[in-house]
Amino acid sequence: MSITLRYGLTSAVLSVVREKGHVSGPDMESIARDLRIPTSRVYGFCSQFPEFTRPPGRPLLQVCSGPACAATGWEAKVESAMGELRLRSEILRVPGLMRLHRPPALAVCLPGEEERMVEGFRQEELEELAMSLDRKDLSSYPLPDAEEIPQAGEASEGAVSPWLASLLRKGLISSPDEEMVREVSGNPAPIREFLEGECGFSSLIAQAGPPEVLVCDVVGPCPEGSADLLVSRTSPGMVAMGAAMAALALGARKVVFYLPWNLLELESVFGRVAEEAASLAGLEWEVFPGPTYIPCWRDIGVAAVLRGTMLWRAASICGRDGPLHLELPTLVCGAFTLWKLPWMVREEGGLEESTGRHTLIAVGPDGASRWMELPPSLPAAELGKRLSEVLGDRSPKAFYLEGQENRVYAGDSERVDIPRGARRLLVLDDSRCMAGWARRMLEMAVEGCCGGCTPGRTAPAAAAALISSGLKGGDGEHGLRKIKDLLERAEQLALCPQLGRTFPVIRKCMDFFPEDFALLSGGEDKPEPTVSGSSKTSGIGGRK
User: Fold this and answer.
1) How many CB atoms lie within 10 A of CB 10?
2) DSSP state of 220
3) pLDDT, tens digit (0-9, with 9 covering 90-100), for 204-215
4) How far apart are CA 28 and CA 33, in angstroms?
5) Cβ(280)–Cβ(244) under 8 Å?
6) Bridge partners of 363?
7) pLDDT < 50: residue spans in the chain
């Protein structure tokens, strides 16, 4: 029996957006009539995604607000130039430009033209951009090159995993392999164990049973410089084959490939490779384009978009347990995780090898990136040595790990634990003020929540305001305690795990770098950063 997902609303909205560049009020009313649903439902759904409802005919600037760009502290320095750009364009803050880039960065697009990226800008460069928008001529800004593949760090060379070696040397499996399908069908336990470790859903499957639909999300949990999108662009066949193998191992009957709606070339590619892989495994399949950025816990948000459901409603149904509790039960896995599976099965000992190393992209203070393969735990001093290529002559002040869960460690911690499912390691040096970075991360958390619960709507903004102004009144240590208590209570009360991606990281920043926050208590608007303290032993973060 065919598995049908009821997502006519998303498809109808996207057809209008692709034709006109946006969806207007009359368009929403027309969609409601065609689907025989209340107009308010269409309005509510569209309003969740600014990329669908932006004013027509104006240039679009997508400003990267990801952790790496936030760490540069560029906004206060170029505020006047940004004001000029606001007069000439529609500005959207996004949680991360998906292509690898040098921070800070923004993507700019004139109506009907291809998107261009502006990197590492200064005030005079933004003023020049404003004049280019006046002239409606962006020809001096180059189109993005093909996706750059970072090189392996020196500490990884000669000992990289088969999946990373395939990417660096382009030694990809040319086509799906029937022998791999038979191996997974006959012995699914190792694949299931790996996926449970990477995505953390073992208890959910025990409660809710196997998913009926497996969604391969090509953006993944970390949109800034997305490792998931990188491997989807460079080795889509391996991503598709990995998704089919995961569906077989978990007992799902259908595979859906979720792609950003504006990546038309990738949609075409996945339409070809998905059919080959899913058909070989005897699965139903579908390629589904949807919003690029979803203000919600990513797994829940993707599942909600597939059904045309309001994000807050999906979050209230799913709670902390994710979309396995939706109807149909759905599991969302990032492409980066699924990309590894064919090589693990093909290479003898590959599955066992995966538990002893974690593959991720390391990004330095200036945006230099390298592939790294790191053990699950190592001393911070050793990690700093391994990252010499991205650090240069700088000293690491903090290590920020992104993925299925997020963690932060001081640069002089006794040990750094690399969680399963890590995508990126961002290194912050001694020039960074961790109080300012924490404040910007909280502002990002406001933008990244669906607004379905009071903690998600108010707690990040309240905590950011306390950091900005409350501590300046001399609140000092008492103010820090208030912020920690606010964040902890809000995380416990939130509907979904979204706040758990940021709040534990902020609390640890306060523990590790009290000097940076103490400067704010003295009334400093732009505190000078301080070096990290001594003997910090644990970083924490991620969802519960």
Assistant:
1) 24
2) -
3) 666 667 889 999
4) 9
5) yes
6) 369, 426
7) 1, 523-537, 542-544
Q: What is the 3-state secondary structure (H, E, C) of 415-433?
A: CEECCCCEEEEEEEECCCC
Q: How many helices (H) and strands (E) does the chain have?
A: 27, 15
CA dihedral 307, 311, 317, 318 (to 10 degrees): 90
Query: For 438, what's the count of Cα atoms within 13 Å in the CB-facing half-sphere?
Result: 34
Least Cα distance to 288 among 211, 217, 234, 220 occurs for: 217
| Predicted local distance difference test score (pLDDT) of residue 536 | 45
- What would the pLDDT profile of 132-143 be if each residue is shown by its tens digit? 999 989 988 877
> Residue 27 has what DSSP assignment?
H
| Paired tokens of 32 | 């409601």
Going through 347-501 in order, the beta strands assigned E by DSSP cover: 358-363, 369-374, 377-378, 396-403, 407-410, 416-417, 422-429
The whole-number pLDDT of residue 472 equals 52
Alpha helices in 235-346 (DSSP H): 236-250, 264-281, 298-307, 311-318, 335-339, 341-346
Query: Tokens representing 174?
Result: 């040319």
pTM for the whole structure: 0.91
DSSP 159-186: S--HHHHHHHHT----S--HHHHHHHHH
Dihedral sign computed on CA atoms, order 437, 94, 96, 305: positive
H-run or E-run covering 215: strand 213-217
How far, CA to CA in Å, does 113 sit from each of 21, 96, 116, 472? 11, 21, 9, 46
d(CA 398, CA 442): 17
Single-letter code of the amino acid located at 17: V
- Tokens standing for 108? 């700019």
> How many CB atoms are located within 10 Å of the residue 238 CB?
26
**469: which residues sit within 8 A by CB, 6+ positions away?**
none
Between the alpha carbon of residue 191 and those of residues 252, 272, 323, the distances in Å are 13, 25, 20
- By three-state DSSP, how is residue 332 classified? strand
pLDDT on residue 6: 58
Query: What is the C-alpha to C-alpha distance for residues 89 and 54, in angstroms, rounded to an integer?
Result: 10
**What distance separates the 2 farthest-apart alpha carbons in the chain?**
67
- Contact call for residues 289 and 261 (beta carbons, < 8 A): yes
Say how many CA atoms lie within 13 Å of 381 toward its Cβ. Answer: 3
How far apart are alpha carbons 365 and 115 in whole angstroms? 26
**pLDDT (0 to 100) of residue 77:** 72
Q: Burial code of 355-392, b = ≥16 C-beta within 10 A, e = fewer?
A: eebbbbbbbbbbbbbbbbbbeeeeebeebbebbebbbe
The 3-state DSSP class for residue 266 equals helix
User: For position 519, what pLDDT does the model report?
Assistant: 62
